[in-house]
Write a structure and sequence with these properties.
Number of strands: 11
Number of domains: 1
Strand order of the largest sheet: 6-7-8-9-4-3-10-11
Radius of gyration: 15 Å
Strand content: 35-45%
Order of helices and strands: EEEHEEEEEEEEH
Largest sheet: 8 strands, mixed
Helix content: 10-25%
CATH class: Mainly Beta
Distance between the termini: 24 Å
CATH topology: Metal Binding Protein, Guanine Nucleotide Exchange Factor, Chain A
Number of helices: 2
CATH architecture: Beta Complex
Shape: globular
Structural class: mainly beta
């Protein structure tokens, strides 16, 4: 699947290919602090940014960075550095009608005041980390 997106002010736009339609929500303490709530993202095969000079990157861990528009503050992506793998935040897509919530991770760190509807996998942080270490 291909798609386009942009930040709130339009200083950064993107075109992405190889996009998974399965949305994953993360409730880890870092994502909740970063987004103000659960993070919703999809993995992409390739992304090209226009207005790259307006992207600030923040190393949120040894293995990952987060990108945002330095003009309006829109959160754009989460990137695994070693694999150069981008996950784009759902709120930045121009059209999100093709996507479906497929799972939640770090459910054990989820704040108590919300729950996401649907019948999909819900993994604790330990279960999620074990699943990616075994792949």
């Amino acid at each position: 699947m291909k798609a386009t997106g942009h930040c709130q002010c339009g200083a950064v736009t993107y075109s992405a290919e190889g996009i998974e339609t399965d949305v994953h929500s993360c409730h880890c303490n870092i994502c909740v602090r970063w987004t103000g709530g659960p993070a919703f993202a999809v993995s992409v095969g390739q992304v090209t940014f226009e207005g790259e000079e307006n992207i600030s990157r923040f190393d949120s861990s040894e293995w990952a960075e987060r990108g945002f528009c330095r003009r309006c503050g829109t959160h754009l992506f989460y990137r695994l550095k070693e694999a150069d793998q981008y996950m784009l935040w759902m709120g930045t897509f121009d059209d999100s009608t093709q996507f479906n919530l497929a799972g939640e991770i770090f459910i054990d760190q989820k704040p108590h005041f919300y729950d996401l509807a649907g019948d999909h996998p819900r993994l604790t942080g330990e279960e999620f980390m074990a699943s990616i270490m075994n792949n």
